[in-house]
Amino acid sequence: MKHFKRILLLLVVCFSVLLTSAQPPTVSLITCGPGNDAYTLFGHTAIRINQPAIGQDLCVNYGLFSFDQPNFMLRFILGQPEYIVGAIPTEIFLEEYRQEGRWVRQQDLKLDSLQIQALVDAIAVNCLPANREYRYNIFTANCTTKAADIIEQNTPLRFSTTDVQTDKTIRQHLHHYTANHPWYQFGIDLLLGVKADEKPQNPVFLPELLYAQAAAQTYQEQQLIDGSGLSSANASIFTPRVLFGVLALLLIVLSVRDYRCGQFCVGIDVCLWIILGCVGLCLLFMVFSAHPTVSLNLQILLFNPLIAVFGWKVYRQMKRQKPSLLLLIYGSCLVLFLIGRIWQVYAEGLMLIAVALLVRYGLFFFLSNRKTANTPKS
What is the mean pLDDT of residues 159-175? Predict the structure, then answer.
């Protein structure tokens, strides 16, 4: 009886080994849903390599970075951050998303054993210390595009052959994720320029876009985490449109009061010029960024750095209630800003501020010209 149990146990172990070795390796595309933090808003992509024969189940992640890198934030703003690719056990990878309550979906790719091995070998080379770093770019080289690239370069699969949501611009794609986060959306729209209102050059620059493109290239799909634990963003009435709408209305009311009093309170303008000029200097700095969508930003016509640099001259002339050429130039920039809305979508609420400023400086010129005309000539 004792020998029989040992033989039975040995048969069970042998059968388990044979069953495991009989399971072929699989490569899957992992798509993770968006979170509520700024760096998780657009979701995430990884490649899962499951090799039961050797007891290895890894997720290859192209979205690894460290804030400890020298000048990381500055390099990120300039479009020069260094990201790395790495592989971690799938269960550890999934646990983070399970804790955050974000959904995770898996698509098993249509690859034979030779194609899988070729892809695994390529990823292994990519993960070597000498090769794992890459220059990150939010639209052209991110966790999603890099995953798609290495799959396309080493297998027959292609993700850019079907037209999925290609009628949308880059900004419209981003707005889909920032709709419930108005201040995140405001900051992103403030930095993005004219090129963000064009169609993306890479149709799979977002995880869910790649997920949609990969549907025809997979033989099985499953939901690993349902995402029911993610709390929705709290709605707030304190949005950029409300804030800037109130400020614009207040500025128009004060401007009408100043006009009726015959004397403009220039202190209001000084505060505005400091704020507008500082933001303008930041937008001017973005011209040197490697990000492809920030170099030409028409919002700099409103946030004009010149109004901060030469504001003291404008202040002196406005204090004496005299017309200013610099103020006239700035008013022309505001008109061009409003016209520029034809080509670029602006951050929410900025059009209201531009209109209010035009009303204010229009009233100032009208008042100063009237005073000049009424001044008796000696």
Answer: 77
Cα 118 to the chain's mean position, in Å? Answer: 33
245, with CB counted inside 10 A (0-12, 13-18, 19+), is middle
**CA 348-353-358 angle, 5° bins:** 140
Three-state DSSP string of 217-273? HEEEEEEEECCCCCCCCCCCCCCHHHHHHHHHHHHHHHHHHHHHHCCCCHHHHHHHH
DSSP 376: P
Q: Which tokens belong to 130?
A: 């000498």
In this structure, the number of other CB atoms found within 10 A of the CB of residue 163 comes to 9
- Please state whether 282 falls in left (phi above 0), alpha (psi between -120 and 50) or beta: alpha
In this prediction the pTM is 0.83
In the structure, what pLDDT confidence band is assigned to residue 22 with cuts at 50, 70 and 90?
Answer: low
